[in-house]
Amino acid sequence: MHHRYLLAFTGALLTAAPVFAQTKPAFPAERIAKLSAQQEAKVIAWRRDLHEHPELGNQETRTAALIAEHLRKLGLEVQTGVARTGVVALLKGGKPGPVVALRADMDGLPVTESNNLPFASKARTQYNGQEVGVMHACGHDTHVAMLLGAAEVLVQMRQELAGTVKFIFQPAEEGSLPGQEGGARLMVKEGVLQNPKVDAIFGLHIQAQTEVGKLSYRPGGEMASSDVFNIKVKGKSAHGAYPWLAVDPVVTAAQIILGLQTIVSRQAELTEDAVVLTVGMVHGGVRNNIIPEQVELTGTIRCLNKEMQQKVWAAVRRTATNIAESAGATAEVDIVNYAPVTFNDPGLTAQIVPSLNRAAGPANVSVQKAVTGAEDFAFYQEKVPGVFVFVGGMPKGKNPADTAPHHTPGFFVDESGLTLGVRTLVTLATDYLATGKK
Fold first, then answer.
1. What is the pLDDT of residue 23?
2. Do 100 and 162 form a contact (C-beta atoms < 8 A)?
3. Angle value at C-alpha 350, between 19 and 339, nearest 5 degrees
4. 172-195: burial string, b at 16+ Cβ within 10 Å, e else
5. Cβ–Cβ < 8 Å for 110, 175
6. pTM for the full model?
7. Which segments of 235-316 are extended strands (E)?
8. Dihedral (C-alpha) 234, 237, 243, 249: value to the nearest 10 degrees?
9. Model confidence over 7-58: pLDDT tens digits?
């Protein structure tokens, strides 16, 4: 570990140690486990219904209606239409205290399911001008079901709760259509962390490569920031037989692609944190013997801290523009941030480790490696302390290498792991409220 981070991490643990030591269970683990287990059949039924009827980001109207109807039946204060299709509900405890938020995302992906399940998705829709299949290929159906199950349990504890629980059902975590705002960024903009003001927020994500019964987390940078870059390389068109009459943007773009690789291999301090820079699209030209006027490159940047992110942005601009200039061409560079680093507040993380241990058993809780995937849960964490936890969804004894990854047609979740998710959300919420800290 880099010495700066070793010292910072050690300091964070020492600072948080008194909170860690004083954490007391608000409710016996046995009681939470029993109440959570009683919701298992409902949670699985909700999950299967949602899985069979997935909806893309900002289109989750059926999903939102199901959620709102159930929360109203529980007697909660429910607000709909937040950030287009989001649902927010309040559970006010019988005693005053802090406000804790629990978040689940609701949207599916433009993926055609290949699983042979009785509740497999057969849904289809239009996406970017194409007809596509729709699937919960990242487990957001399980997130909604687990949070609904947690609401069922917490309602039964209402009079004993010292504070308020805010349930956030968020649309469009996977992104919105081009030019359309959505997701956690819009939820925050529309005030989801206010009225009442949230003091801490927790979220869970199912993990198809982690065995059921397991929880994992990471203090600090847990998941990467996600940026989209677009580089327009402009040259001069000519006949392919006379390249000396052109300023060739194809060759220039190829040199830029190779130059971008040195940002990771030679300019990023990888002993600090990982960096990923991928060119995913190259567009240019219409015919084999015509040198085009322009080539467009599009890709993604992933970083695990803001300082590294800013250095990489500067390096992308410098590399592209200078290589283009050396060829007599120009390069226009545009970089847009999709999501910040998912940063688990170190003090809050240390505080909730005993809660995770009570929910899953200490032997089933571990600190994981950083993930270069991204999560827009990070937008909440920019405003209030938050922790994001992974819960296992892989069948026991299965090899992770043989398990379909997230965002693929064969993505699969073992539903026996969902009760642990309910138990974890309830334990996190009740233990945090018991601290009385705002």
1. 57
2. no
3. 130
4. bbbbbeeeeebbbbbbbeeebbee
5. no
6. 0.91
7. 238-239, 275-284, 290-291, 294-303
8. 20
9. 333 344 433 333 444 456 889 999 999 999 999 999 999 999 999 999 999 9
